[in-house]
Every structure is written in C-alpha cells, then in structure tokens.
Amino acid sequence: MLFLTSSIGAFAQFSGTTYTPGQRAQIQNDWMKDNLRLTNEQLEKVSELNLEYAQKMEEVKTIQGKLDKLKKARDIADDKDKRLKQVLTKEQFDLYQEKKSELRKMARERAKEFEQNNQ
Predict the structure, then answer these.
(1) 11 CB contacts (<8 Å, ≥6 apart)?
(2) Residue of 14, 37, 47, 88 with fewest CB within 10 Å of its CB?
(3) What is the pTM of this model?
(4) Could you give the CA distance from residue 83 to residue 85 in angstroms, rounded to a whole number?
(5) How many CA atoms are closer than 13 Å to the CA of 44, on its beta-carbon side?
(6) Whole-number Å distance between alpha carbons of 106 and 112
(7) pLDDT tens-digit map of 80-118
(8) Residue 119's pLDDT band (cuts 50, 70, 90)
(9) What's the CA angle centered on 96, arms 10 and 70, to 5 degrees?
(10) Rg of the chain over all Cα atoms, to the nearest angstrom
(11) What torsion do the CA atoms of 4, 94, 106, 34 make, to the nearest 10 degrees?
C-alpha cells in the first residue's frame, strides 16, 4: 500500500500535515470500508493489517537514500498486497488495485506541481 500509505504520506508532506501510523491506518480503514464494502470480519482483519503496515512504513523514514527508501516501501507494499489478497474478494482486490493506481497517479501529479511551484 504504497497505495494509501504513501499517497497519504505524499499529500501530508506537501500540506505540512504529519500523521501517526495509527491515524494513517484509520484513514485507510475508513476508505476501504466505504469503497470496498468490507464485511465486519474483513474490516477487523484489514484494520490489523493497515496498522501493522503503517508502522512498517514508518521505519522507511529512517532509511538513507531515496532509492533505498523506495525499494523498502515497495517491498512493504507488495507484502501487504499479498496479505490483503487473502482477505478481500477478487472483486474487492481488483477495485483496490485500480484505486491504488489512481491514487499513485494523483500523488505523482501533486508532487510534480509541488516541485514546479517551489523552484
């Protein structure tokens, strides 16, 4: 979940807002509950995963070097996706992947705008 985690992180960075891992996980929980129509059982499992991986993503901040950070973040996101795939239905997971791609694109566009405005 470079998905929401990195997207939320990117948006927060540009807006000056800092979220704790717990806050990022809750934002992800709310989004997934609303957009993926999770059952109560799924929400419980997804909530645990979101918090676990938000905490793992927090560790990425301490890594030196952009490429190393990106690689670690991608590894964490890939691992999370594998675990989410076991919890979500095929339809939910496909929608999740689709939305994740859209959010990445938006984050890249905002980052580009931010860089252009601050040059």
Answers:
(1) 17, 107, 110
(2) 37
(3) 0.77
(4) 5
(5) 3
(6) 10
(7) 999 999 999 999 999 999 998 888 888 888 888 888 888
(8) confident
(9) 35
(10) 14
(11) -60
